[in-house]
Amino acid sequence: MAAAAFLAAGAGAGAGAKAGWTWLTHSPRFAIQEVVVSAGERVSAAEVMTLADLRPGDNILGFRLSECVAGIEFHPWVKSAAVMRSLPDRVLIEVRERKPAALIALGAFYYVDEEGEVFKKALPGEDMNYPVLTGLTLREAVEERADVEPLIKLGIELVKLCGRSRDFPCSELSELHLDRSAGVTLVRAADGMRIRFGFEGFEEKWSRMERALLELREEAAKVAELDLNYEGRVTIRFREGYRVASASDPPEKR
């Protein structure tokens, strides 16, 4: 008898809880009156509302937060999203947009964000004023992503160094060539000079490059290639021959 009474009480409580939840998820008191969207310039509030599948009048407890987030993050410009209920009738949505750091040439141009993630094909009319990464194919970027992603991140590391440099700003950059065997090579826009950075130590190599270019001065136009992959030295290949200069001593006159 005691067990039966306990089970009956439990069943009654369960039925009551179910009835209470049904009332909450259908009550006009909890109908959404306002959806507040905080986003940037590339993602509109209307797009966010559509992707979240939320409308005024929907019950604020009748949707899954995780499904709303997944819907919003489907947008290529969305880095991450957060959706919060503010009872009884407001939903707050915060969207963090991606920031392009470069374009990558993969047959067509695609945007690459600050973390080195290729996230969207660049379309006509969109901003294309970014440094360009070259050397990879679309197949490599898709099918061999785990192998080439570290190389793309190295390219973005050099883009960031350009962005902080007064002596070699991004405006002087023609391309950053990515090679799975040789690493990253910077190509200067003015004269096509190739500057080999390899795979590591970019900040120190950047300082050596800037000193070498300063020391070369007018002779820099005669340089075909700088190789920074020898510690403490800069190997300089002129368009008519080779020579080696230290990172601190000015090159001899030719």
Detailed description of the structure:
The chain is an alpha/beta fold. It has two domains: 96 residues, Roll (Ubiquitin-like (UB roll)), CATH 3.10.20.310; 147 residues, Cell division protein FtsQ/DivIB (Rossmann fold). Helices cover 31% and strands 31% of the residues. It is built from six helices and 13 strands. Strands 6-5-4-7-8-9-10-11-12-13 form a ten-stranded mixed β-sheet. The chain has a three-stranded mixed β-sheet with strand order 1-3-2. Strand 4 and strand 5 form a beta hairpin. Helix 2 crosses helix 3. The longest helix has 23 residues. The radius of gyration is 29 Å and the shape is elongated. The N and C termini lie far apart (108 Å). The relative contact order is 0.07.
Strand content: 25-35%
Can you tell me the CATH topology of the largest domain? Rossmann fold
Average pLDDT value?
88
The major sheet is characterized as: 10 strands, mixed
Rg, Cα atoms, Å = 29 Å
CATH architecture of the largest domain: 3-Layer(aba) Sandwich
- CATH homologous superfamily heading of the largest domain: Cell division protein FtsQ/DivIB
CATH class of the largest domain: Alpha Beta
Low-pLDDT segments, ≥5 res: 5-9, 250-254
**Structural class, from secondary structure content?**
alpha/beta
Strand order of the largest sheet: 6-5-4-7-8-9-10-11-12-13
Counted up, domains total 2
- State the share of residues found in helices, binned by percent: 25-40%
Total beta strands: 13
Element order: H for helix, E for strand:
HEHHEEEEEEHHEEEHEEE
Shape: elongated
* Helix segment tally: 6
Instruction: Measure the end-to-end span.
Output: 108 Å
